[in-house]
Amino acid sequence: MPESELEGSVVLITGAASGIGLALLRRFVSVGARVVALDLSADHLDAIRQEFSDAVECVIGDVRIPQDHEQAVTAALERFGSLDVLIPNAGVFDGNVELESLDPETLLRAADEIFGINVLGYLLAARAAAPHLRRSRGSIVFTVSNAGFHPGAGGGILYTVSKHAVVGVVRQLAFELAPDVRVNGVAPGGTMTGLRIATTLQGIVGTDRHFADRERSERLIGQTNPLRVVAQPEDHADVYLLLASRSSKAITGEIVSSDGGLGVRGIGFENVQTGGD
């Protein structure tokens, strides 16, 4: 089982101090893994350090800065002796903005921020970790999104394009790093987290958080997937666990959707939803 296989493994998670990243940290620690948590929030990392003590090493850093990734990898090697699993997870949202709502200057600045975190941040993490994952014959599990497959279902122009790019990152790195490292992804659907809106777009969107109106967000998420699931961060954790484990030794270049069945909505989905339970 994945649980026993991951005992003693060393896992590096970016964006580990909240949302899906924090849920993953808790789940991996629960099966006996040691975790390096890379995040910008010093306060959140302090809380993690106090809660988990010896099982977690915390590193304050920005995923757009190569040296911060190197520092996190070094922390894994010096504190725990190896690196077995990388989970690039840190992300930022665009508030569902459409292309024509952005003037060229704002478009450039917002693209730089969103692609820098959601795409380049993933590449920098993989670049820093790859030589060590080759030695351990480890794995990478990227956080993708339903927006990587379904335009109009989970983001505006910049977020959706960034997550489509991550699909390409998963597939290309699965090719480049084989046979030493397996590379896969998880594509969560709407999940109730504190996902932040890009700083450059907060004025346009009118808030700094994607799910600022929690009740409305839960209602909309539940209406848009066939299973009517309103996911919490921990609902996706075991998918990452499986892909990170040796039980998945024949799986690479794949992205597992954990989105309530968005891919099977079909043309009649709206009618089904309005037809009662």
Summed up, what is this model?
The protein is an alpha/beta fold. Helix content is 45%, strand content 13%.
Labels describing this entry:
277 residues; alpha/beta; Rossmann fold; 10 helices
Spans of 5+ residues with little confidence (pLDDT < 50)? 271-277
Order of helices and strands: HEHEHEHEHEHEHHHEH
CATH superfamily: NAD(P)-binding Rossmann-like Domain
- CATH level-3 fold name: Rossmann fold
What is the number of independent domains?
Answer: 1
CATH class category label: Alpha Beta
Mind describing the biggest β-sheet?
Answer: 7 strands, parallel
Give the neighbour order of strands across the main sheet. Answer: 3-2-1-4-5-6-7
How widely separated are the two ends? 37 Å
Beta-strand residue fraction: 5-15%
Number of helices: 10
Mean pLDDT: 92
Structural class designation? alpha/beta
CATH architecture: 3-Layer(aba) Sandwich
Beta strand count: 7
Question: What proportion of the residues is helical, as a percent range?
Answer: 40-55%
The Cα radius of gyration reads 18 Å
Shape: globular
